[in-house]
Amino acid sequence: MTYWKAAGLTYNRYMAVAARAVRNSLKDGPRLQAERRGLMDLRFAKWENGKQGEVKHVADANKSGMAAQSESK
C-alpha cells in the first residue's frame, strides 16, 4: 500500500515533504547546508495552442499547490 497515493499526493510531492522533514530535523550546521541544496532554480511554462504561457518557478508553484491542497481538506 502506498500511503502517499492514498493521501492524494504525487510521488514528487511526497518526496519533497519527506526531504523537508529530514532537513528540518538536522542540527543547525548540516541543516543550513541541506537547505541550500534543497533550493530549486527550475522554471516551467504551460503551452497551449502552440503558444508559451507564463514562465513560473517550480518552487513557487509547488508552494502554492501545497497551500491550495491543504485548504481543500
Automatic annotation (TrEMBL):
<dbReference type="GO" id="GO:0046933">
    <property type="term" value="F:proton-transporting ATP synthase activity, rotational mechanism"/>
</dbReference>
<dbReference type="InterPro" id="IPR036742">
    <property type="entry name" value="ATP_synth_F1_esu_sf_mt"/>
</dbReference>
<protein>
    <recommendedName>
        <fullName>Mitochondrial ATP synthase epsilon chain domain-containing protein</fullName>
    </recommendedName>
</protein>
<dbReference type="Pfam" id="PF04627">
    <property type="entry name" value="ATP-synt_Eps"/>
</dbReference>
<dbReference type="GO" id="GO:0042776">
    <property type="term" value="P:proton motive force-driven mitochondrial ATP synthesis"/>
</dbReference>
<dbReference type="InterPro" id="IPR006721">
    <property type="entry name" value="ATP_synth_F1_esu_mt"/>
</dbReference>
<dbReference type="GO" id="GO:0045259">
    <property type="term" value="C:proton-transporting ATP synthase complex"/>
</dbReference>
<dbReference type="GO" id="GO:0005743">
    <property type="term" value="C:mitochondrial inner membrane"/>
</dbReference>
<comment type="similarity">
    <text>Belongs to the eukaryotic ATPase epsilon family.</text>
</comment>
